[in-house]
Amino acid sequence: HIATSLPLPSERDHLRPRIDLIVFVIDIKSKCSLKNVEASLAYVDGSFFLGKVCFLVTGVGRVNCCSVEINAISKLGEAYSSPVLFCELELEGVRVATAQRLLRMLQICAGLVSGFSALSFNLLMRNSADD
């Protein structure tokens, strides 16, 4: 499901499926995009950040058009102990690879991959980013 911001409308709570992963999309060309994500973070339970949230930063192929600092986004990922993925959606190969990566993250967060939990996956992401 896609939402432009949080909180989600409560009138359909009884019909909403379980939420296994939240992907916050930040367009690097839009300060409004970052502000919307920052405002939405307040509506996510703190325990949910342990492996079930990630930040997807789009538009990274056009660094000269950036309105949002990469450093600010990295700090956001650190503050919420959540991975930050960077991609350029206009390139089909990158778009497909990003979709596959997000799908794999979702499978792990939903408990569909034996031997992995959302928390262990988050630790693996953190260790690979530190290398």
UniProtKB/TrEMBL annotation:
The keyword Nucleus applies. It is found in: Chromosome, Centromere; Nucleus. This is Centromere protein M. Pfam families: CENP-M (PF11111). One of its GO terms (cellular component) is chromosome, centromeric region. Keywords: Centromere, Chromosome, Nucleus. The gene is Cenpm. The keyword Nucleus applies. It comes from the Eukaryota. Gene3D superfamilies: P-loop containing nucleotide triphosphate hydrolases (3.40.50.300).
